[in-house]
Amino acid sequence: MKERLDVIRDLLDRQLVDSDETKMGRVDGIVLDIDGDGPPRIDHFELGFAVLARRIHPRIERWLNAIRARWSVRRSARQIVPWAKVVDVTAYEIKVDLKAIDTPAFDWERWLRDHIVAKIPGAGGE
Amino acid sequence: MKKAMTLALGILTSVGGFFDVGNIATCTQAGARFRFQLIWAMLLATIVVIFLIEMSGRFAAVTNKALPDAIREHFGFTFWLVPFAILTVIHILVLGAEIGGVCFALHLVTGLPLQVWALPVAVLLWLFLWRSTFSAIENSTSLLGLITLCFVVAAVWHRPPLHDLLRGSLPSLPSQHPANYWFIAVSIVGAVIAPYLFYFYSSGAVEDEWDASYIPVNRAVSVIGMAFGSVISIGAIIVAGVVLAPRGIHVDDYHQAALMLTSAFPFWGYVLFAVSMGIACLGAAVEVALSMSYTFAQTFGWNWGEDLAPDEDARFCLVYTAALLVGSLFMLVGMDPLQLTMITMALSAAALPFVAIPMLLLMNDRKLLHDAANGAISNVAAAAIVVLTLVLAVVSIPLAVVGGS
Q1: What architecture does CATH give domain B2-403?
Q2: In what order do the strands lie in the sheet with A15-17?
Q3: CB count, 10 Å around CB of A120?
Q4: B309/A100 touch (CB, cutoff 8 Å), yes or no
Q5: Are A55 and B77 a contacting pair at CB < 8 A?
Q6: How far is CA B309 from CA A126, B106, B124, B398, in A?
Q7: A117-121, B1-5, B246-250: segment of lowest average pLDDT
Q8: If exposure means fewest CB atoms within 10 Å of the residue's CB, which of A55, A101, B248, B369 is most exposed?
Q9: Is the confidence at residue A126, as pLDDT, over 70?
Q10: Is B110 within 8 Å of B119 (Cβ atoms)?
């Protein structure tokens, strides 16, 4: 059966889940690749506050980038999930063949865990 | 067996979620000023909250998604941004008011000023969230919450005139102080239909791994749990109406509310009030703080879950940590807890369309819900609820200005 995907309805803003079922962020932006005479095709998803900020207004993105340049722990303003890494698009989430904890999408999570949470007793659960 | 447990726990937890600082404040004010005349507002709010809780639980059971998650996905980030920002402010204010309630209860028992208690209460709440799992939170807040039944016991003990109660169950116009009357009516609705309830409840259903087979359980929990909570709140209105109103005590301060149980329980009344208030507000504060974490994590797609250890969802845990810190500031700077509660309830009522409208649109999405989408009855209720929340949004803040205190 031929399935149809609506880029905005079915992909944008949807939850991304990695190969360990860890929630790794949402599809904050979608980038298409326009190549000469072929039809446009999805190249990658973008994640990050900068991507969200641009959706509101370019000026907010500029402010955010100015703040980011000083304080962010992220390696880059936007993280990329290549379309080639997408394993499955269900009605509820998008599964990707990546490990969230190794990607820049988890830079903040990792930084906060190592610098704050791990220093507080009881963070390990047991 | 598991479902029977879920049912029992769910009912008890919803009692805990229902009766909180907002209910204590609005119900005692309603009773003290207008005796039983505002019981109708509580009944109306209860019916609305039953429908909305049932829908948010059904949604989570079928889609395995909590509401903030689904709203961002469905309506997009740019739509969700404004409600998200408003609800974040409301979450913080409600948390501040609940912490205020706990601080006041401790103040009643110890005599120490509220400022002293603000940080210890925040730390206690934080420790609880940091260390325990979702089911531990459900169990403890629900069982301890049963203490609030003392309001029902006191209400029955006072033998209120039945026909006055029935008359109060139907809306009527006040003979005096109309602005104050409508302000309290709106605040009761704002206190009962607290936005955090739906985000907490639907996220809790996902944490407890509900599936479509939980729809009947969910329905029973919503109806019985909310009705049970409503009975306790009506108990508080009745006791305030019998004890405070004839003495002309207008509740401008929680100290006056604290007197209400002393006729029914001469020796223990004061302590019983303090313990009920402390426990009800502690339970609600936990739910509000978690609801804030759920909303943030789902909005940005972070890993979340109260059953995960903090080092598995650092951002989730840091949101409630920050919320508790900010929430404790209100008492720390010496704000009056009753005033904070009443302002919060009016703002909370004003924000209800942001909660109700996206939720009701989602409930009609057959692509997500299939057969479990809203039927005719739910949709008629839904339409009425949207109209009600829009009216509340328009009138609540002006009423707070002219009718407050």
Answers
A1: Up-down Bundle (1.20)
A2: A23-26, A15-17, A93-96, A86-89
A3: 13
A4: no
A5: yes
A6: 8, 30, 18, 45
A7: B1-5
A8: B248
A9: no
A10: no
Residues whose CB falls within 8 Å of the CB of residue B82, separated by 6 or more in sequence, listed in order: B354
Contact B314 A112 (CB under 8 A): yes
Q: Parse chain B into domains and list their residue ranges.
A: 2-403
Q: Whole-number mean pLDDT of chain A?
A: 87
* Interchain contact B366–A (C-beta under 8 A): no
Beta bridge partners of A44: A31, A82
Dihedral sign, CA of B316, B317, B320, B326? Answer: negative
* B78 interface with A at CB cutoff 8 Å: yes
A19 phi, psi to nearest 5 deg: -70, -15
Residues of A in contact with B69 (CB under 8 A): 15
Chain A environment of B304 (Cβ under 8 Å): 23
**Count of residues in chain A:** 126
> Whole-prediction pTM value?
0.94
The 10s digit of each residue's pLDDT in A26-56 is 999 999 998 878 888 899 999 988 899 999 9
A4 exposure class (CB count in 10 Å sphere: 0-12, 13-18, 19+)? exposed
Q: How far apart are CA B388 and CA A114, in angstroms?
A: 48
State both tokens at B304: 């979340």
B333: Cα within 13 Å, side-chain hemisphere: 8
Domains of chain A: residue spans and CATH: 7-119 (2.30.30.240)
Which residues lie below 8 Å from residue B394, measured CB to CB, with a gap of 6+? Answer: none
Which of A15, A108, A109 lies at the smallest CB-CB distance from B69? A15
- Token couple for B265: 């329980």
Distance CA B374, CA A82 (A): 38
Q: Report d(CA A13, CA A9) in Å as an integer.
A: 9
Q: What is the tens place of the pLDDT at every residue in B150-194?
A: 999 999 999 999 999 999 999 999 988 999 999 999 999 999 999
> Cα–Cα distance between B293 and B203 in angstroms, integer?
10
CB of B181 within 8 A of CB of B38? yes
Contacts of B277 (CB under 8 A, 6+ apart): B21, B24, B101, B102, B104, B105, B108, B254
Judged by CB atoms within 8 Å, which residues 130-159 of B form the interface with A?
A: 130-131
**Bridge partner residues of A86 (DSSP):** A96
Cβ neighbors of A73 (< 8 A, separation 6 or more) are A107, A108, A111
